[in-house]
């Protein structure tokens, strides 16, 4: 399997690394950020498990998800974006962005970059997303 790195107009998407635990915790441990996604705020231990699981799943063949860190040009982690493949040339898109970075277009850029990857590199026919009530 090859590592994925995608360039957007404002952000870069790359595979998660173990050193991403602390900046990821600042994101997934923030109740403002986790209010709408399909998961609750996470502890440090849960964040470590999340990152380790994400790294392990990059080795699956065939790969069933692309859970990528969204970083600034200086590699500061500000978000994540995920395509979960469902096996029928379709995927579900999910993402969250650190509250301190809301309103700057980073999530839009990440979502656009990842959907382009899904349609043009993975040849998906459908990508859907949902938001919690």
Task: Note down, in words, how this protein is organized.
A 6-stranded mixed beta sheet has the order 1-2-3-4-5-6, with helices on both faces. The mean pLDDT is 90. The protein has one domain (5-128): 3-Layer(aba) Sandwich (Aminopeptidase). The chain is of the alpha+beta class and 133 residues long. It is 29% helix and 26% strand. The protein contains 3 helices and 6 strands, in the order ββααβββαβ. Helix 1 packs across helix 2.
Question: What's the short story on this structure?
Answer:
With 133 residues, this protein is α+β, with helices and mostly antiparallel strands. The protein has helices at residues 21-28, 44-57, 106-121; strands spanning 5-7, 12-15, 65-71, 77-85, 90-97, 126-128.
The helicity comes to: 25-40%
What fold name stands as the CATH topology? Aminopeptidase
Number of strands: 6
**What's the alpha carbon Rg, rounded to whole Å?**
14 Å
As a percent range, the share of strand residues is 25-35%
């Amino acid at each position: 399997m090859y590592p994925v790195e995608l360039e957007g107009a404002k952000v870069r998407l790359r595979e998660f690394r173990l050193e991403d635990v602390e900046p990821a915790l600042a994101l997934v441990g923030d109740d403002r950020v986790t209010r709408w996604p399909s998961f609750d705020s996470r502890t440090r231990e849960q964040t470590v498990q999340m990152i380790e699981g994400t790294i392990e799943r990059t080795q699956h063949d065939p790969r069933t998800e692309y859970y990528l860190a969204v970083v600034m040009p200086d590699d500061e982690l500000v978000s994540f974006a995920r395509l979960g493949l469902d096996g029928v040339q379709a995927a579900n898109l999910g993402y969250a962005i650190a509250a301190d970075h809301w309103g700057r277009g980073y999530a839009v850029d990440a979502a656009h970059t990842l959907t382009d990857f899904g349609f043009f590199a993975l040849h998906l026919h459908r990508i859907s997303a949902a938001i919690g009530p």
